[in-house]
Protein backbone atom coordinates (compact mmCIF):
# COMPACT_ATOMS: atom_id res chain seq x y z
CA UNK A 1 0.00 0.00 0.00
CA UNK A 2 1.35 3.40 -1.00
CA UNK A 3 0.31 6.42 1.07
CA UNK A 4 0.88 10.15 0.44
CA UNK A 5 -0.11 12.43 3.37
CA UNK A 6 -0.77 16.15 3.00
CA UNK A 7 0.18 18.80 5.53
CA UNK A 8 -3.11 18.67 7.46
CA UNK A 9 -2.73 15.04 8.59
CA UNK A 10 1.00 15.40 9.25
CA UNK A 11 0.26 18.31 11.61
CA UNK A 12 -2.45 16.27 13.37
CA UNK A 13 -0.20 13.20 13.79
CA UNK A 14 -2.78 11.03 12.03
CA UNK A 15 -0.37 8.94 9.90
CA UNK A 16 1.76 7.55 12.78
CA UNK A 17 -1.43 6.91 14.71
CA UNK A 18 -2.84 4.76 11.88
CA UNK A 19 0.46 2.88 11.58
CA UNK A 20 0.35 2.08 15.30
CA UNK A 21 -3.30 1.05 14.98
CA UNK A 22 -2.24 -1.44 12.25
CA UNK A 23 -4.15 0.20 9.38
CA UNK A 24 -0.98 1.31 7.59
CA UNK A 25 1.23 -1.54 8.83
CA UNK A 26 3.82 -2.37 6.15
CA UNK A 27 2.80 0.58 3.96
CA UNK A 28 5.21 2.69 1.92
CA UNK A 29 4.74 6.35 2.91
CA UNK A 30 5.84 8.93 0.38
CA UNK A 31 6.23 12.26 2.18
CA UNK A 32 6.21 15.17 -0.32
CA UNK A 33 9.14 17.56 0.10
CA UNK A 34 6.54 20.31 -0.35
CA UNK A 35 5.03 19.24 2.99
CA UNK A 36 8.44 19.38 4.65
CA UNK A 37 9.07 22.88 3.27
CA UNK A 38 5.70 24.15 4.47
CA UNK A 39 5.96 22.83 8.02
CA UNK A 40 9.56 23.99 8.29
CA UNK A 41 8.46 27.51 7.37
CA UNK A 42 5.71 27.32 10.01
CA UNK A 43 8.18 26.20 12.68
CA UNK A 44 10.65 28.95 11.72
CA UNK A 45 7.91 31.54 12.16
CA UNK A 46 7.14 30.21 15.64
CA UNK A 47 3.86 28.49 14.76
CA UNK A 48 3.06 25.47 16.89
CA UNK A 49 1.61 23.58 13.92
CA UNK A 50 5.08 23.50 12.38
CA UNK A 51 6.63 22.01 15.49
CA UNK A 52 3.82 19.44 15.81
CA UNK A 53 4.36 18.38 12.18
CA UNK A 54 8.13 18.00 12.65
CA UNK A 55 7.47 15.75 15.65
CA UNK A 56 5.16 13.61 13.47
CA UNK A 57 7.85 13.26 10.78
CA UNK A 58 10.32 12.13 13.45
CA UNK A 59 7.82 9.52 14.67
CA UNK A 60 7.47 8.18 11.13
CA UNK A 61 11.25 7.78 10.88
CA UNK A 62 11.26 5.86 14.17
CA UNK A 63 8.48 3.57 12.87
CA UNK A 64 10.53 2.99 9.69
CA UNK A 65 13.59 2.09 11.81
CA UNK A 66 11.39 -0.46 13.58
CA UNK A 67 10.50 -1.96 10.20
CA UNK A 68 6.82 -1.22 10.46
CA UNK A 69 6.71 1.13 7.41
CA UNK A 70 8.93 2.47 4.66
CA UNK A 71 9.34 6.24 4.47
CA UNK A 72 10.59 8.14 1.41
CA UNK A 73 10.87 11.89 0.88
CA UNK A 74 9.96 12.70 -2.74
CA UNK A 75 8.88 15.40 -5.14
CA UNK A 76 9.67 19.07 -5.47
CA UNK A 77 10.42 21.16 -2.40
CA UNK A 78 8.14 24.15 -2.00
CA UNK A 79 10.00 27.40 -2.56
CA UNK A 80 9.31 30.74 -0.88
CA UNK A 81 6.81 31.81 -3.53
CA UNK A 82 4.90 28.51 -3.19
CA UNK A 83 4.69 28.98 0.57
CA UNK A 84 3.43 32.56 0.16
CA UNK A 85 0.78 31.24 -2.24
CA UNK A 86 -0.17 28.31 -0.01
CA UNK A 87 -3.67 29.70 0.60
CA UNK A 88 -4.19 29.81 -3.18
CA UNK A 89 -3.41 26.07 -3.47
CA UNK A 90 0.18 26.17 -4.79
CA UNK A 91 1.50 23.60 -2.29
CA UNK A 92 -1.65 21.47 -2.47
CA UNK A 93 -1.12 21.07 -6.22
CA UNK A 94 2.46 19.83 -5.74
CA UNK A 95 1.32 17.29 -3.12
CA UNK A 96 -1.47 15.97 -5.38
CA UNK A 97 1.04 15.51 -8.20
CA UNK A 98 3.14 13.28 -5.89
CA UNK A 99 0.11 11.11 -5.07
CA UNK A 100 -0.68 10.70 -8.76
CA UNK A 101 2.94 9.92 -9.67
CA UNK A 102 3.28 7.11 -7.09
CA UNK A 103 -0.26 5.76 -7.55
CA UNK A 104 -0.79 6.26 -3.83
CA UNK A 105 -3.76 6.74 -1.55
CA UNK A 106 -3.94 10.45 -0.86
CA UNK A 107 -4.69 11.07 2.86
CA UNK A 108 -6.02 14.48 3.92
CA UNK A 109 -8.36 16.18 6.39
CA UNK A 110 -8.79 19.19 4.07
CA UNK A 111 -12.19 18.80 2.37
CA UNK A 112 -11.29 21.10 -0.54
CA UNK A 113 -8.06 19.23 -1.16
CA UNK A 114 -9.94 15.91 -1.03
CA UNK A 115 -12.58 16.98 -3.56
CA UNK A 116 -10.01 18.41 -6.00
CA UNK A 117 -7.97 15.18 -5.80
CA UNK A 118 -11.07 13.07 -6.50
CA UNK A 119 -11.77 15.25 -9.50
CA UNK A 120 -8.31 14.44 -10.83
CA UNK A 121 -8.90 10.67 -10.44
CA UNK A 122 -6.70 10.22 -7.37
CA UNK A 123 -7.76 7.68 -4.70
CA UNK A 124 -8.53 9.71 -1.57
CA UNK A 125 -8.93 8.84 2.10
CA UNK A 126 -10.58 11.79 3.84
CA UNK A 127 -10.13 11.97 7.63
CA UNK A 128 -12.48 14.21 9.57
CA UNK A 129 -10.53 17.08 11.17
CA UNK A 130 -9.76 16.53 14.82
CA UNK A 131 -11.74 18.55 17.35
CA UNK A 132 -9.48 19.85 20.08
CA UNK A 133 -10.87 20.52 23.50
CA UNK A 134 -9.85 23.88 24.92
CA UNK A 135 -8.37 23.42 28.35
CA UNK A 136 -7.22 26.15 30.65
CA UNK A 137 -4.07 27.92 29.54
CA UNK A 138 -1.17 28.16 31.94
CA UNK A 139 -1.25 31.98 31.82
CA UNK A 140 -4.84 31.98 33.11
CA UNK A 141 -3.43 31.21 36.55
CA UNK A 142 -2.21 34.83 36.63
CA UNK A 143 -5.75 36.21 36.30
CA UNK A 144 -8.32 36.90 38.99
CA UNK A 145 -11.63 38.79 38.96
CA UNK A 146 -9.91 42.20 39.06
CA UNK A 147 -7.14 41.51 36.53
CA UNK A 148 -7.50 43.35 33.24
CA UNK A 149 -4.19 42.32 31.65
CA UNK A 150 -1.11 40.18 32.30
CA UNK A 151 2.37 41.05 31.01
CA UNK A 152 5.08 38.36 30.85
CA UNK A 153 8.69 38.94 29.82
CA UNK A 154 11.94 37.07 30.54
CA UNK A 155 14.06 38.66 33.24
CA UNK A 156 11.04 40.25 34.94
CA UNK A 157 8.44 39.11 37.44
CA UNK A 158 4.94 38.72 36.04
CA UNK A 159 3.11 42.07 35.94
CA UNK A 160 -0.60 42.84 35.72
CA UNK A 161 -3.07 45.70 35.50
CA UNK A 162 -5.56 45.14 38.30
CA UNK A 163 -8.41 47.04 39.90
CA UNK A 164 -11.88 48.42 39.31
CA UNK A 165 -12.62 50.35 36.12
CA UNK A 166 -11.07 53.79 36.45
CA UNK A 167 -8.81 52.68 39.33
CA UNK A 168 -6.51 50.22 37.57
CA UNK A 169 -2.90 49.88 38.77
CA UNK A 170 0.09 48.24 37.08
CA UNK A 171 1.65 45.97 39.70
CA UNK A 172 3.81 42.84 40.11
CA UNK A 173 1.92 39.58 40.67
CA UNK A 174 4.86 37.17 40.90
CA UNK A 175 7.85 36.67 43.16
CA UNK A 176 10.40 35.18 40.76
CA UNK A 177 11.74 36.44 37.46
CA UNK A 178 10.53 34.52 34.41
CA UNK A 179 13.05 32.73 32.19
CA UNK A 180 13.00 32.52 28.40
CA UNK A 181 12.02 28.85 28.31
CA UNK A 182 8.94 29.42 30.47
CA UNK A 183 7.68 32.34 28.37
CA UNK A 184 8.28 30.38 25.15
CA UNK A 185 6.36 27.44 26.60
CA UNK A 186 3.43 29.71 27.39
CA UNK A 187 3.58 31.17 23.85
CA UNK A 188 3.64 27.73 22.21
CA UNK A 189 0.60 26.61 24.20
CA UNK A 190 -1.31 29.76 23.27
CA UNK A 191 -0.60 29.49 19.54
CA UNK A 192 -1.36 25.79 19.46
CA UNK A 193 -4.68 26.30 21.23
CA UNK A 194 -5.61 29.23 19.01
CA UNK A 195 -5.02 27.17 15.87
CA UNK A 196 -6.88 24.09 17.01
CA UNK A 197 -9.68 25.00 19.41
CA UNK A 198 -13.18 25.76 18.17
CA UNK A 199 -13.58 28.89 20.31
CA UNK A 200 -10.16 30.36 19.54
CA UNK A 201 -8.38 31.69 16.47
CA UNK A 202 -5.25 33.47 15.32
CA UNK A 203 -6.10 37.07 14.44
CA UNK A 204 -2.71 38.07 13.04
CA UNK A 205 0.45 36.14 12.25
CA UNK A 206 3.44 38.14 11.03
CA UNK A 207 7.15 37.74 11.52
CA UNK A 208 7.72 38.76 15.11
CA UNK A 209 4.08 39.21 16.12
CA UNK A 210 1.15 36.86 16.68
CA UNK A 211 -2.23 38.00 18.01
CA UNK A 212 -4.60 35.28 19.17
CA UNK A 213 -8.11 35.31 20.56
CA UNK A 214 -8.72 32.54 23.10
CA UNK A 215 -12.19 32.66 24.63
CA UNK A 216 -12.44 36.16 26.13
CA UNK A 217 -8.69 36.81 26.08
CA UNK A 218 -6.83 38.77 23.43
CA UNK A 219 -3.20 37.67 23.56
CA UNK A 220 -0.30 39.36 21.77
CA UNK A 221 3.01 37.50 21.46
CA UNK A 222 5.94 39.58 20.23
CA UNK A 223 9.44 38.28 19.57
CA UNK A 224 12.60 39.21 17.63
CA UNK A 225 13.02 40.87 15.21
CA UNK A 226 9.85 42.83 16.07
CA UNK A 227 10.79 43.14 19.76
CA UNK A 228 14.18 42.70 21.43
CA UNK A 229 12.94 39.52 23.14
CA UNK A 230 9.79 37.48 23.52
CA UNK A 231 6.91 39.06 25.44
CA UNK A 232 3.30 38.02 26.10
CA UNK A 233 0.49 40.49 26.78
CA UNK A 234 -2.89 38.95 27.58
CA UNK A 235 -5.96 41.18 27.98
CA UNK A 236 -9.50 40.33 28.95
CA UNK A 237 -12.54 42.37 30.05
CA UNK A 238 -13.11 42.45 33.78
CA UNK A 239 -16.74 43.52 33.53
CA UNK A 240 -19.62 43.00 31.15
CA UNK A 241 -22.33 45.61 31.24
CA UNK A 242 -25.77 46.36 29.86
CA UNK A 243 -27.28 49.70 28.92
CA UNK A 244 -29.04 49.78 32.29
CA UNK A 245 -25.68 50.18 34.01
CA UNK A 246 -25.05 53.64 32.52
CA UNK A 247 -26.27 57.21 33.03
CA UNK A 248 -28.81 58.50 30.49
CA UNK A 249 -29.68 54.87 29.64
CA UNK A 250 -33.35 55.52 28.83
CA UNK A 251 -32.63 58.57 26.68
CA UNK A 252 -29.83 56.79 24.80
CA UNK A 253 -31.99 53.73 24.14
CA UNK A 254 -34.78 55.90 22.72
CA UNK A 255 -32.29 57.83 20.60
CA UNK A 256 -30.67 54.71 19.15
CA UNK A 257 -34.01 53.14 18.28
CA UNK A 258 -35.55 56.32 16.86
CA UNK A 259 -33.60 55.90 13.62
CA UNK A 260 -30.20 54.75 12.39
CA UNK A 261 -27.60 56.93 14.02
CA UNK A 262 -23.95 57.86 13.65
CA UNK A 263 -22.39 57.56 17.09
CA UNK A 264 -18.84 58.08 18.34
CA UNK A 265 -17.98 56.51 21.69
CA UNK A 266 -14.98 58.45 22.98
CA UNK A 267 -12.70 58.31 25.98
CA UNK A 268 -9.15 57.84 27.18
CA UNK A 269 -7.45 54.41 27.06
CA UNK A 270 -8.90 52.13 29.72
CA UNK A 271 -11.94 54.33 30.31
CA UNK A 272 -14.39 51.59 29.31
CA UNK A 273 -15.23 52.55 25.70
CA UNK A 274 -15.25 49.01 24.32
CA UNK A 275 -17.24 47.76 27.30
CA UNK A 276 -19.92 50.35 26.57
CA UNK A 277 -19.78 49.48 22.84
CA UNK A 278 -20.50 45.83 23.74
CA UNK A 279 -23.51 46.93 25.77
CA UNK A 280 -24.78 49.04 22.86
CA UNK A 281 -24.28 46.19 20.37
CA UNK A 282 -26.22 43.69 22.47
CA UNK A 283 -28.99 46.20 23.21
CA UNK A 284 -29.43 46.92 19.49
CA UNK A 285 -29.39 43.22 18.66
CA UNK A 286 -31.95 42.39 21.36
CA UNK A 287 -34.15 45.17 19.97
CA UNK A 288 -34.44 43.33 16.65
CA UNK A 289 -31.65 44.99 14.66
CA UNK A 290 -29.13 43.17 12.47
CA UNK A 291 -25.83 44.07 14.13
CA UNK A 292 -22.31 43.36 12.83
CA UNK A 293 -18.89 44.48 14.00
CA UNK A 294 -15.69 45.61 12.32
CA UNK A 295 -12.71 44.95 14.59
CA UNK A 296 -8.96 44.51 14.36
CA UNK A 297 -8.41 42.48 16.43
CA UNK A 298 -11.80 40.92 17.14
CA UNK A 299 -12.00 41.10 20.92
CA UNK A 300 -15.49 42.37 21.77
CA UNK A 301 -17.32 39.77 23.87
CA UNK A 302 -20.70 39.48 22.17
CA UNK A 303 -23.57 37.03 21.82
CA UNK A 304 -23.52 34.64 18.87
CA UNK A 305 -26.24 36.56 17.02
CA UNK A 306 -23.75 39.41 16.44
CA UNK A 307 -21.27 38.46 13.71
CA UNK A 308 -17.78 39.89 14.16
CA UNK A 309 -15.71 40.78 11.08
CA UNK A 310 -12.10 41.82 10.76
CA UNK A 311 -10.05 43.16 7.82
CA UNK A 312 -10.78 41.46 4.51
CA UNK A 313 -7.62 41.10 2.45
CA UNK A 314 -5.87 43.43 4.90
CA UNK A 315 -8.28 46.32 4.24
CA UNK A 316 -11.30 47.49 6.23
CA UNK A 317 -12.65 49.11 3.06
CA UNK A 318 -13.13 45.62 1.60
CA UNK A 319 -14.87 44.57 4.81
CA UNK A 320 -17.17 47.56 4.42
CA UNK A 321 -17.98 46.63 0.81
CA UNK A 322 -18.94 43.13 1.96
CA UNK A 323 -21.04 44.46 4.83
CA UNK A 324 -22.97 46.73 2.51
CA UNK A 325 -24.09 43.60 0.68
CA UNK A 326 -25.20 42.06 4.00
CA UNK A 327 -26.97 45.34 4.84
CA UNK A 328 -26.82 45.45 8.66
CA UNK A 329 -28.95 47.92 10.59
CA UNK A 330 -25.99 48.84 12.79
CA UNK A 331 -22.24 48.23 12.61
CA UNK A 332 -19.91 48.59 15.59
CA UNK A 333 -16.49 49.85 14.41
CA UNK A 334 -13.80 49.17 17.02
CA UNK A 335 -11.53 51.15 16.73
CA UNK A 336 -11.64 54.21 14.43
CA UNK A 337 -8.11 55.61 14.43
CA UNK A 338 -6.55 56.33 11.04
CA UNK A 339 -7.81 58.46 8.18
CA UNK A 340 -8.80 55.30 6.27
CA UNK A 341 -10.93 54.22 9.25
CA UNK A 342 -12.77 57.56 9.35
CA UNK A 343 -13.36 57.42 5.60
CA UNK A 344 -14.78 53.88 5.83
CA UNK A 345 -16.96 54.93 8.78
CA UNK A 346 -18.24 57.93 6.81
CA UNK A 347 -18.90 55.93 3.63
CA UNK A 348 -20.95 53.33 5.48
CA UNK A 349 -22.92 55.96 7.39
CA UNK A 350 -23.72 57.90 4.22
CA UNK A 351 -24.85 54.61 2.65
CA UNK A 352 -27.55 54.44 5.30
CA UNK A 353 -26.01 52.03 7.81
CA UNK A 354 -26.22 52.95 11.49
CA UNK A 355 -22.64 53.26 12.76
CA UNK A 356 -21.15 53.15 16.26
CA UNK A 357 -17.44 53.96 16.29
CA UNK A 358 -14.96 53.74 19.17
CA UNK A 359 -12.28 56.47 19.22
CA UNK A 360 -9.56 57.65 21.58
CA UNK A 361 -10.14 61.20 22.85
CA UNK A 362 -9.28 63.12 26.01
CA UNK A 363 -12.27 65.50 25.68
CA UNK A 364 -15.73 64.88 24.21
CA UNK A 365 -15.29 67.53 21.50
CA UNK A 366 -11.96 66.00 20.40
CA UNK A 367 -13.81 62.97 18.99
CA UNK A 368 -15.78 65.21 16.63
CA UNK A 369 -12.75 67.31 15.70
CA UNK A 370 -10.97 64.18 14.46
CA UNK A 371 -13.42 64.20 11.55
CA UNK A 372 -12.47 67.76 10.59
CA UNK A 373 -10.23 67.71 7.54
CA UNK A 374 -11.05 64.06 6.88
CA UNK A 375 -14.56 64.65 5.59
CA UNK A 376 -16.33 67.71 4.21
CA UNK A 377 -17.35 69.97 7.10
CA UNK A 378 -21.00 70.19 6.14
CA UNK A 379 -21.30 66.38 6.07
CA UNK A 380 -20.18 65.84 9.67
CA UNK A 381 -23.69 65.95 11.26
CA UNK A 382 -24.89 63.44 8.66
CA UNK A 383 -22.04 61.12 9.63
CA UNK A 384 -22.01 61.67 13.41
CA UNK A 385 -25.07 63.01 15.22
CA UNK A 386 -24.20 61.70 18.70
CA UNK A 387 -21.00 61.73 20.77
CA UNK A 388 -20.88 59.65 23.96
CA UNK A 389 -17.91 60.34 26.24
CA UNK A 390 -16.92 57.61 28.69
CA UNK A 391 -14.92 58.37 31.81
CA UNK A 392 -14.06 55.87 34.54
CA UNK A 393 -16.50 53.35 33.13
CA UNK A 394 -19.57 55.60 33.01
CA UNK A 395 -21.24 57.94 30.52
CA UNK A 396 -19.87 61.37 31.40
CA UNK A 397 -21.15 63.49 28.50
CA UNK A 398 -23.51 63.07 25.56
CA UNK A 399 -23.51 65.58 22.71
CA UNK A 400 -26.17 66.09 20.07
CA UNK A 401 -24.70 67.26 16.74
CA UNK A 402 -26.78 69.23 14.22
CA UNK A 403 -26.20 71.86 11.54
CA UNK A 404 -27.99 74.99 10.39
CA UNK A 405 -27.25 78.13 8.40
CA UNK A 406 -26.95 81.02 10.84
CA UNK A 407 -24.74 83.83 12.05
CA UNK A 408 -22.23 82.25 14.46
CA UNK A 409 -22.76 83.05 18.12
CA UNK A 410 -21.16 86.38 19.01
CA UNK A 411 -21.23 87.81 15.48
CA UNK A 412 -23.91 90.26 14.39
CA UNK A 413 -23.66 91.02 10.67
CA UNK A 414 -26.31 89.18 8.64
CA UNK A 415 -23.89 88.72 5.74
CA UNK A 416 -21.73 86.59 8.05
CA UNK A 417 -24.33 83.80 8.06
CA UNK A 418 -22.84 80.41 7.12
CA UNK A 419 -23.36 76.68 7.80
CA UNK A 420 -22.69 76.15 11.51
CA UNK A 421 -22.36 72.79 13.25
CA UNK A 422 -24.02 73.08 16.65
CA UNK A 423 -22.87 70.78 19.42
CA UNK A 424 -25.35 70.67 22.33
CA UNK A 425 -25.43 68.88 25.64
CA UNK A 426 -27.91 66.09 25.00
CA UNK A 427 -29.50 66.09 28.46
CA UNK A 428 -30.00 69.87 28.82
CA UNK A 429 -30.05 71.10 25.21
CA UNK A 430 -27.48 73.75 26.15
CA UNK A 431 -25.15 74.78 23.27
CA UNK A 432 -21.57 73.76 24.07
CA UNK A 433 -19.64 74.41 20.82
CA UNK A 434 -20.05 75.78 17.34
CA UNK A 435 -17.90 74.60 14.45
CA UNK A 436 -17.73 76.63 11.24
CA UNK A 437 -15.44 78.12 8.62
CA UNK A 438 -13.91 81.45 9.64
CA UNK A 439 -11.48 83.23 7.33
CA UNK A 440 -11.02 80.02 5.29
CA UNK A 441 -10.19 78.01 8.42
CA UNK A 442 -12.35 75.52 10.30
CA UNK A 443 -12.67 76.70 13.90
CA UNK A 444 -14.28 75.21 16.99
CA UNK A 445 -15.64 77.88 19.29
CA UNK A 446 -16.61 76.94 22.88
CA UNK A 447 -19.83 78.54 24.06
CA UNK A 448 -19.42 77.53 27.70
CA UNK A 449 -17.73 80.47 29.39
CA UNK A 450 -16.90 78.71 32.66
CA UNK A 451 -13.19 78.72 31.90
CA UNK A 452 -12.25 81.74 34.02
CA UNK A 453 -11.82 84.03 30.98
CA UNK A 454 -13.79 87.25 30.52
CA UNK A 455 -13.61 86.86 26.74
CA UNK A 456 -16.19 84.78 24.94
CA UNK A 457 -15.08 82.00 22.64
CA UNK A 458 -15.82 84.10 19.58
CA UNK A 459 -13.96 87.07 21.12
CA UNK A 460 -10.89 84.93 21.59
CA UNK A 461 -11.21 83.66 18.04
CA UNK A 462 -11.66 87.18 16.64
CA UNK A 463 -8.68 88.47 18.62
CA UNK A 464 -6.51 85.63 17.38
CA UNK A 465 -7.48 86.18 13.74
CA UNK A 466 -7.03 89.96 13.91
CA UNK A 467 -3.61 89.55 15.52
CA UNK A 468 -2.58 87.08 12.84
CA UNK A 469 -3.65 89.37 9.98
CA UNK A 470 -2.08 92.54 11.44
CA UNK A 471 1.13 90.77 12.43
CA UNK A 472 1.60 89.76 8.79
CA UNK A 473 1.70 93.47 7.88
CA UNK A 474 4.02 94.64 10.67
CA UNK A 475 7.43 94.00 12.16
CA UNK A 476 6.81 95.34 15.66
CA UNK A 477 4.43 94.43 18.50
CA UNK A 478 0.67 94.18 17.98
CA UNK A 479 -2.03 94.55 20.63
CA UNK A 480 -5.72 93.92 19.95
CA UNK A 481 -8.79 94.89 21.96
CA UNK A 482 -12.18 93.49 20.93
CA UNK A 483 -14.75 96.23 21.57
CA UNK A 484 -17.87 94.47 20.30
CA UNK A 485 -19.20 91.72 18.06
CA UNK A 486 -17.92 93.50 14.95
CA UNK A 487 -15.38 96.02 16.18
CA UNK A 488 -11.73 95.86 17.21
CA UNK A 489 -8.98 98.35 18.02
CA UNK A 490 -5.45 97.51 16.92
CA UNK A 491 -2.38 99.14 18.48
CA UNK A 492 0.93 99.12 16.59
CA UNK A 493 4.18 101.09 16.67
CA UNK A 494 4.47 104.51 15.04
CA UNK A 495 6.70 103.06 12.33
CA UNK A 496 4.21 100.32 11.44
CA UNK A 497 0.99 102.28 11.37
CA UNK A 498 1.21 103.48 7.75
CA UNK A 499 2.16 99.99 6.58
CA UNK A 500 -0.88 98.47 8.33
CA UNK A 501 -3.23 100.98 6.80
CA UNK A 502 -1.70 100.69 3.33
CA UNK A 503 -2.03 102.83 0.30
CA UNK A 504 -5.26 104.80 0.52
CA UNK A 505 -6.37 102.53 3.39
CA UNK A 506 -6.41 99.57 1.01
CA UNK A 507 -4.58 97.06 3.20
CA UNK A 508 -6.71 97.57 6.32
CA UNK A 509 -9.87 97.55 4.18
CA UNK A 510 -8.90 94.15 2.77
CA UNK A 511 -8.35 92.81 6.27
CA UNK A 512 -11.71 94.18 7.42
CA UNK A 513 -13.47 92.53 4.49
CA UNK A 514 -11.81 89.17 5.11
CA UNK A 515 -12.64 89.13 8.81
CA UNK A 516 -16.02 90.86 8.67
CA UNK A 517 -15.01 93.25 11.44
CA UNK A 518 -14.32 97.02 11.64
CA UNK A 519 -10.77 97.76 12.76
CA UNK A 520 -9.52 101.05 14.21
CA UNK A 521 -5.72 101.35 13.96
CA UNK A 522 -3.91 103.34 16.63
CA UNK A 523 -0.42 103.71 18.05
CA UNK A 524 0.72 101.73 21.07
CA UNK A 525 1.00 105.00 23.01
CA UNK A 526 -2.78 105.41 22.75
CA UNK A 527 -3.64 102.12 24.38
CA UNK A 528 -5.35 102.64 27.76
CA UNK A 529 -2.78 102.46 30.52
CA UNK A 530 0.02 103.69 28.22
CA UNK A 531 1.55 107.19 28.30
CA UNK A 532 -0.12 109.63 25.93
CA UNK A 533 1.57 109.85 22.57
CA UNK A 534 1.02 110.73 18.96
CA UNK A 535 -2.57 110.62 17.72
CA UNK A 536 -3.12 107.32 15.90
CA UNK A 537 -4.57 106.69 12.49
CA UNK A 538 -7.93 105.10 11.80
CA UNK A 539 -8.74 102.23 9.49
CA UNK A 540 -9.77 104.68 6.77
CA UNK A 541 -6.19 105.61 6.07
CA UNK A 542 -6.35 109.23 7.29
CA UNK A 543 -2.90 110.43 8.23
CA UNK A 544 -1.10 107.82 6.16
CA UNK A 545 0.70 110.37 4.03
CA UNK A 546 1.99 112.19 7.11
CA UNK A 547 3.70 109.04 8.32
CA UNK A 548 5.11 108.13 4.92
CA UNK A 549 4.27 105.80 2.09
CA UNK A 550 5.18 102.11 2.00
CA UNK A 551 6.65 101.15 -1.36
CA UNK A 552 7.42 97.91 -3.13
CA UNK A 553 10.81 98.20 -4.85
CA UNK A 554 11.21 96.96 -8.41
CA UNK A 555 14.69 95.74 -9.41
CA UNK A 556 15.80 95.83 -13.03
CA UNK A 557 19.17 95.09 -14.58
CA UNK A 558 20.21 98.72 -14.23
CA UNK A 559 18.06 100.36 -11.55
CA UNK A 560 16.17 99.93 -8.31
CA UNK A 561 12.84 101.70 -8.79
CA UNK A 562 10.67 102.97 -5.93
CA UNK A 563 7.19 103.72 -7.40
CA UNK A 564 5.14 106.39 -5.59
CA UNK A 565 1.46 107.23 -5.73
CA UNK A 566 0.18 110.71 -6.41
CA UNK A 567 1.86 113.63 -8.19
CA UNK A 568 5.08 114.02 -6.20
CA UNK A 569 7.52 114.72 -9.03
CA UNK A 570 10.29 117.13 -7.99
CA UNK A 571 9.59 116.53 -4.27
CA UNK A 572 12.56 115.90 -1.97
CA UNK A 573 11.97 112.84 0.21
CA UNK A 574 13.77 110.49 2.58
CA UNK A 575 13.98 106.76 1.89
CA UNK A 576 13.83 104.62 5.04
CA UNK A 577 14.05 100.90 5.86
CA UNK A 578 12.05 99.87 8.92
CA UNK A 579 12.05 103.58 9.86
CA UNK A 580 15.84 103.86 9.60
CA UNK A 581 17.19 106.62 7.30
CA UNK A 582 18.94 105.37 4.16
CA UNK A 583 19.26 108.37 1.83
CA UNK A 584 17.61 111.53 0.53
CA UNK A 585 16.28 111.61 -3.05
CA UNK A 586 14.26 113.69 -5.48
CA UNK A 587 11.16 112.17 -7.06
CA UNK A 588 11.51 111.99 -10.84
CA UNK A 589 9.04 113.17 -13.46
CA UNK A 590 7.50 109.75 -13.72
CA UNK A 591 6.52 109.84 -10.06
CA UNK A 592 9.19 107.37 -8.92
CA UNK A 593 12.71 107.23 -7.55
CA UNK A 594 15.40 105.49 -9.58
CA UNK A 595 18.70 104.44 -8.04
CA UNK A 596 21.47 103.17 -10.33
CA UNK A 597 22.65 99.73 -9.33
CA UNK A 598 26.30 99.46 -8.34
CA UNK A 599 26.29 102.66 -6.33
CA UNK A 600 26.81 102.67 -2.55
CA UNK A 601 23.22 103.86 -2.04
CA UNK A 602 21.86 101.05 -4.23
CA UNK A 603 23.87 98.44 -2.36
CA UNK A 604 22.48 99.70 0.96
CA UNK A 605 18.97 99.60 -0.45
CA UNK A 606 19.45 96.09 -1.87
CA UNK A 607 20.64 94.83 1.51
CA UNK A 608 17.46 96.20 3.09
CA UNK A 609 15.33 94.54 0.40
CA UNK A 610 17.13 91.20 0.80
CA UNK A 611 16.54 91.40 4.57
CA UNK A 612 12.84 91.95 3.85
CA UNK A 613 12.85 95.26 5.69
CA UNK A 614 9.89 97.58 5.13
CA UNK A 615 10.89 100.32 2.65
CA UNK A 616 9.05 103.64 3.00
CA UNK A 617 9.29 107.14 1.53
CA UNK A 618 8.59 110.14 3.81
CA UNK A 619 8.68 113.89 3.18
CA UNK A 620 12.05 115.56 3.87
CA UNK A 621 11.27 118.02 6.67
UniProtKB/TrEMBL annotation:
Q: Which UniProt keywords apply?
A: RNA-binding
Its source organism is Halobacterium litoreum
Q: Where is each PIN domain found? A: 1-115
SMART domains the UniProt entry points to:
AAA (SM00382), PINc (SM00670)
Name of the featured protein = PINc/VapC family ATPase
**An example Gene Ontology molecular-function term:** RNA binding
Q: Which domain of life is it from?
A: Archaea
Matching entries from PANTHER family are given as: AAA FAMILY ATPASE (PTHR11603), MEMBRANE PROTEIN (PTHR11603:SF147)
- Establish whether keyword Ligase is in the entry: no
The reply to whether RNA-binding figures as a keyword in the UniProt entry is yes
Amino acid sequence: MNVVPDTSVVVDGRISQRVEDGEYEGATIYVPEAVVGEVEAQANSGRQTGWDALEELQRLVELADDGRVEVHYVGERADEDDIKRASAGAIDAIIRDVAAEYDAVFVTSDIVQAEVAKGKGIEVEFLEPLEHELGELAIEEYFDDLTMSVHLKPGMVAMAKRGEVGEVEYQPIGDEELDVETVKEYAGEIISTAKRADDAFVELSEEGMTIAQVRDMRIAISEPPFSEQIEITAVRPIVKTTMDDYEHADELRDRLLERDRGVLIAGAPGAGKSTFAQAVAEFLSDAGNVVKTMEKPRDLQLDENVTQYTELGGEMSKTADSLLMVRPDYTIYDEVRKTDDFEVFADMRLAGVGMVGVVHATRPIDALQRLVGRVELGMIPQIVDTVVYIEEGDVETVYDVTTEVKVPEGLMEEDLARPVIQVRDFSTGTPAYEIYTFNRQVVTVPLDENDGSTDSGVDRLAKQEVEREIQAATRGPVEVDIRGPNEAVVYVSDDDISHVIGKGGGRIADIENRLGINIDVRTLDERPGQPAGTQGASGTGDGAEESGQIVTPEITSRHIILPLSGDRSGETVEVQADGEYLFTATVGRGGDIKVSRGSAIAEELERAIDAERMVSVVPNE
